[in-house]
Amino acid sequence: MSQTITDLRLFRFRCYSDISLKLDNRAIVLTGPNGAGKTNILEALSFLSPGRGLRQAALDDVTQNSAAAGSTWAVSAALDGMRYGKTRIGTGLDPAALAKGSKKRIVKIDGDARKGQSGLTEYLSVVWVTPQMDRLFLDGSALRRRFLDQVIFNFDGAHLGRLNKYEKALRERSRLLRERGADGADPAWLSSLETVMAEAALSIAAARLITVERLQKAAIENHLHTDIFPLPVIRIEGWVEKALEKDPALKVEEDFKELLRRGRPRDALVGGAEHGTHRSDFMVWHKGHSLLADQCSTGEQKGLLMAVTLAHARLVAAERGFPPILLLDEMAAHLDEYRRKTLFEMVFSLGGQCWMTGTDKELFAPLQGQAQFLDIENAAVTASSSPATDDFSAATDNPDKEEEKESGSCPQTP
Ligand SMILES: Nc1ncnc2c1ncn2[C@@H]1O[C@H](COP(=O)(O)OP(=O)(O)OP(=O)(O)O)[C@@H](O)[C@H]1O
Ligand SMILES: [Mg+2]
Q1: Domains in the chain: how many in total?
Q2: 182 in any annotated domain
Q3: What is the pLDDT of residues 46-74, one digit of tens each?
Q4: Does the residue 74 lie in any domain?
Q5: CB distance 71 to ligand 1 below 6 Å
Q6: Is the C-alpha dihedral spanning 92, 94, 99, 100 positive or negative?
Q7: By the 8 A CB rule, do 153 and 315 touch?
Q8: Atom of ligand 1 at shortest distance to CA of 67?
Q9: What is the CATH number of the domain that holds 414?
Q10: Cα-to-centroid distance, 281 and ligand 2 (Å)
């Protein structure tokens, strides 16, 4: 195993007031009843990458409910990494910003505050799949765009900045058009906003196109390894992306600006902008059935989601030179025994530290000896031996069992 979190601390993070987990380089299996706090641990890990975590939560929703007003959450991890060796990464809701009424994340590497979140990707990548993502193919395109952009964050630290720049210019243009109308708004001001949008859109679309191409290649490689999940055909569709596939970037930029200019009357009436990278869609087909994912069965959709996620993990490993931390929330439950075993083998072959959750520890029996098993109940985490040697119901009563309550020392605020 090459990229390992050896120590994870959660402070005022959802149901956890203060926990510290010591880990070795094996996979981690978190099991416990519904509501115990399993997904919250994965969510904390997902905050070690840029963005809003695996629940796309508002930053202040994450702070433990019972914490005093003005409190903030923090997650801190000791990473034994391939590139920089031992590093401590901290993140959380910035207390100084919160005191001034703004909610932003603070990121610290070895105690030094970093500007923005993109520096996190220098040190590690985190890839996840959760049951909530089952909606990926059924809901609107915003969710899928976010999914693809999250993939890009792993390779391209500037992508978040481009998206923010584009969104800000789009919002400002929409406000002008709404308040003053297409004829009343200052044309020079509108043009300069459209220029910002066009420049950013070109970079966004180029990053998405190249990532989709690489993701497709990784999906095919995974499929050669095992075909337990359907082979996805992946595309990004949108005006800018389509234009970029046939014309040079400079021409597309000019054409897109012109499209925005001509679209002002329509956009003033309807709001937003009719075309642009904010409307592109990340499309996934089931290769075997030649069907779009939303027309596939529930099981096939789950399979496609797993295939795309594992392609993402393979892509990170290939491009970054180190495998991602992989978070699989409740993924074992819906697979038959053969698929489960094959999934575990595949996950191990990718080589990154993998965190898995489930309510039924027995499903993870094939991982005996290869994983650390942690039981969670009411936000209390206890280490236990693997399922095949456990009498689960008596786990806490058996004096012979090696059981260790994880310590609760106060983590450093990042
Ligand atoms: N901000 C918060 N403060 C305190 N508790 C919270 C906060 N947000 C969520 N919780 C609680 O955390 C608990 C654990 O949630 P989590 O999603 O981690 O459970 P889980 O073990 O994954 O359960 P399941 O098996 O149902 O998915 C829930 O009871 C939830 O109400
Ligand atoms: Mg859960």
Answers
A1: 1
A2: no
A3: 999 988 999 999 999 999 999 998 999 99
A4: yes
A5: no
A6: negative
A7: no
A8: 3
A9: 3.40.50.300
A10: 28
